[in-house]
Design brief:
The termini are far apart. The longest helix is centred in the C-terminal third of the chain and has 25 residues. It is built from four helices and no strands. Helix 2 runs parallel beside helix 4 and helix 3 packs antiparallel against helix 4. It is mainly alpha-helical. Helices cover 73% and strands 0% of the residues.
């Protein structure tokens, strides 16, 4: 073992001992960030575009641009899933996005 490994091992053992004795403030421990997949980010981006588009009236250029952006992201998501051999997931995502589109954009039209 190198000197660094010995020092690191000693620090870890010391920390574990202090934690067992209740001397470690748990609020100061670093928790790993939650990770999500690229597909999850794309899905959230599509829904976000729907939500932003709903803020504009039907036919407004911003709404059309956001809806086009959402469609581009949706296609990217579904093609990516199919290329990975995840056809069933792609189908269910497509249905889910269709429902989100209807719920977000159709509801805004009826309440406006």
């Amino acid at each position: 073992m190198s000197v660094f490994d010995l020092i690191a091992e000693n620090q870890i053992q010391d920390w574990n001992r202090r934690k067992a004795n209740g001397e470690v403030d748990e609020s100061r421990t670093i928790k790993p960030q939650e990770r999500s997949s690229f597909e999850s980010h794309l899905f959230k981006s599509v829904v976000g575009c729907y939500e932003k588009a709903a803020e504009f009236p039907e036919g407004h250029h911003q709404r059309r641009a956001l809806e086009q952006r959402a469609e581009d992201l949706r296609v990217q998501l579904l093609v990516g899933l199919e290329q990975k051999g995840m056809r069933i997931t792609a189908q269910s995502m497509s249905k889910e996005l269709q429902l989100k589109h209807q719920a977000i954009l159709s509801n805004k039209l009826t309440t406006a």
